[in-house]
Fold this protein.
Amino acid sequence: MSIEAKKIGKTVGDPAVRILTDISLNIDDGDFVSLTGKSGSGKSTLLYILSSLDSPSDGQVFIEQLDLHKMDPVDLYKFRNQKMGFVFQFNYLIAELTALENVLMPTLKIYKKNEINPYAESLLEKFGLKDRVHRFPRQLSGGEQQRVAIARALVMQPKYLFADEPTGSLDSVNGGVVMEILRNVNREQRTTIILVTHDQDFASYANKNIRLVDGKIE
Amino acid sequence: MIFLAMRYLLERRKQTIFTLLGVFLGTVAYVGVSGFFKGFQDYMVQQLVDNTAQIHIQARQDILNDHKLDGAFFTQNTAHVFWISPPSGLLGFHEVQNPQSWYERLSADKRVEAFSPLISTPVLITLAKNSVSATLTGCNPLQQSKVTSIAKYMIEGQFSDIAGGGNRIIMGDELMKRIGAAKDQIVFVSVGTRNAIPMKVVGRFISGNRGADLQAYAALNDVQRLNGTPNRVNEIAVRLKDYTLASAMAENWSLVSPEKIESWDQQNVNILSVIKMQTTLRFTMIIAILLVAGFGIYNVLNMTVTQKRQDIAILRSMGYDSFDIVTLFFSQGMIVGLVGAIFGLICGYLLCLYLQTISFFPANSSHAGETLHISLDMTIYLQATLLALLASSVASILPARAAEKLTPIEIIRTGA
Ligand SMILES: Nc1ncnc2c1ncn2[C@@H]1O[C@H](COP(=O)(O)OP(=O)(O)OP(=O)(O)O)[C@@H](O)[C@H]1O
Ligand SMILES: [Mg+2]
């Protein structure tokens, strides 16, 4: 059991509005979990809490037996850098950097520049971007940009990949491509994937499905 | 992070150049203006220090007041002495007391480069029907030219021509003109009601200072004889190896002698206060420029932070911590500051070199051909660098701290 949530609750704002209630779940190494639910049901909030970007109002999240929200910041950032990858609905590519440089950004935290180049290039090549590596984000299509963002999330070979509607801004063809990539990563690298989506078809790629209704697990 | 900071700067050229320009112009202005003012001031001080003695030892004469004489009449502690007709006049001596002991002291003092005993007296100089009053200074020309730059200002004859006496006189250009005298003519010089003595004009000088050019010089013993005060001097002019010691030394000597001792800076408070004012003005201006330059950096960085919220969020999710984020934005400001300062220093230096070639004296003056005095003092460049870096670091740290405080979750949740 690699990720364990114990009775997570989340309230926001003043007066407090409860958006997550009493969420407990277990995710094993190599799982491909889909998080589904209606818009506003709290999927993203739960994902961010599980991935340390947000903190819960009550309850705890354990990753590898470590209390995620009580970790020393230094350790937490190191953990994020080396073990977590993120893909969001928007690609958040850095406009001033080429595709390859964007992919390399996470590696610069511990590796020297160029040290990881071959691996980063092979990732881009695998995602069909061989002749796009030196292009800037604005010179890429939306689907290509999202594939670069996925390469960036994977370049550190993370154990956990958190994806919040990675296909949300793509057409169905590109969405399918992205989903294939995720499935392969899960199969080949045994990367644990937690995917937020409201597309039932894409949810079927997962081996575990968690469905949220009004901030609770159904 | 520095890598990314560089990319930000290079990819957003317009903003970078705009901020760079602020620091650049600030640095150029600092170097140029400081070079100009400091050059001028150094020149003024140099002129003061070179042309006149740095310490003047003069006979002391105090103005009498109602109570100066109290002690002479009443030995007890008298509370009040009243005069029907209060005393007036000067109390003291016309001459330096015991100049010999001064000579010994000055010769022994290693800080003293040279000294020159002088006797100055008001005289009336007559040529034909023209009479002009002037100050005649008697000196030993060899000693005097070591103390002041008078010898350099000679345009006719040599200053040493008055050596050894023989009633020879050297006059300032202005004085010559007023009398209508020319070199080798005989003029008549008289002190008070004494009979006029004929003296031969052997030289002329122009110092550029009208007051100084109304003076005349002759041999020490000639003037002593003319004045009826053989072997007396009323001033000893002293030149030091390091002129900055002057006021301290003057103060020290004052404690142990009856003479009035003044250093060059005490005698030139007016000019020095102008210099001080210029320095204040210069600093005010520089601070204003730096504020503008700093404000440029601050504004652009703030804008960058706002525009780069998404980058900050994604970098955070990649595991970059708050220190990295501060570095990312702080270094942008510092790089701009450093590059702007370096270019500013180079261009400021070139500007100073150019200004140095500009001549500002009219062609007919004794300084004709002399150019602007621009200081190339290292400290100006050091100060400029430090100020530029200080301004950019202050301007950068605030936006950097603001960037550090952005939480990725807010940005990612709302997609912007
Ligand atoms: N910081 C916040 N302040 C106020 N309301 C919030 C905050 N965070 C989340 N919410 C609210 O909590 C609810 C759940 O938000 P969340 O983003 O988790 O939904 P979601 O399931 O991801 O929806 P979607 O499918 O539209 O992305 C929403 O109603 C949202 O408006
Ligand atoms: Mg969502």
About this structure: The pocket of magnesium ion (ligand 2) is lined by residues A 43-44, 164 (CB under 6 Å). The first helix of chain B runs from residue 2 to 11.
